[in-house]
Structure formats: structure tokens, C-alpha cells
Please model this.
Amino acid sequence: MPSKTGYIQKQKPNKGRTFEKKWGEPARAIAIRENVAVATIHMRVYNYGSPYQRTSKPSISEQLCGKTLYQLGEELNLHPITVQQRIRAHNNPYISMRGIEKDFSTHQFSKKKGRKNIWLMPEHPCHAEWVEMKAKKDAELKQAKGVKHAEQNNIS
Model:
């Protein structure tokens, strides 16, 4: 029986296909690739405007080097918290407290839970230029590491 107002609601036959039409692939495919729930992909679109952006802004380590704490920890063979403390103390993850080039650690990275990927997915339009810019800055920080150690050795 029709409603009293006479308004008939239109059926939307392709309502489920709008995400795929807009982003070029279904949300389920992105979710499987990222190992997250489909609702997470939809919330990324709602919060950040793109399913390829993982967080609203990069972390401090990503701003400095273009790498997550976990990636820096693997590179330096240190626990991610140690890397974070170096960034807080020296604004450079490559400088240690003792001036030693490499600290030795028994940290097991395979057991560590944390964000292993940077805040932008490779499919994001700004990903390539952001990674290129951060690679240059990371190289500058690595060069500054040697300058800091030279200054520490001259003072002692």
C-alpha cells in the first residue's frame, strides 16, 4: 500500500559499487592487502578523504627520516623506544648517547607489534614526492651524525 504522501522512494541499484567506481578497486581488496577490516578502509575515506592514507599526519620519525620507528629500529638494530629516545634527545635517530656508531641489541623484531609501514600507501597521489623528499632529509641526518661524533671527540 503506497504511503499517504504519495512519495515513492527510488531504488539505487548500484549503491554498493560507488566505492569501486570512485577509487578504482573495491574496499575489500585494499583491506586484504593491508590486513585490516573493510570498515577501516571506509573510515579512512571518512576521516582523511582517501583510502590510501593510514593516519592524519606523519609521526615525528616519519617527518625527520621518512621511516617509522620500527623501520629505523631494524636499520639500527635497536628497540623502537630507544630510537624514539634518540629523536627526543638529539633530534636525530642516528646519534647515540655514548657516541658509539652502533649499539648492539638482542631485540627480536619479528615479535614486535607496531606500525611497519609509513603513513601513506604507495597508491596515494603524494606518496612518491613525499618519499623522495624524506630520503634526502634522511641522508642529511646520516651525514650530521658524523659531525656530532667529531664534536664529541674534540671536547673530551
Summary: Residues 52 and 124 are 5 Å apart (CA to CA).
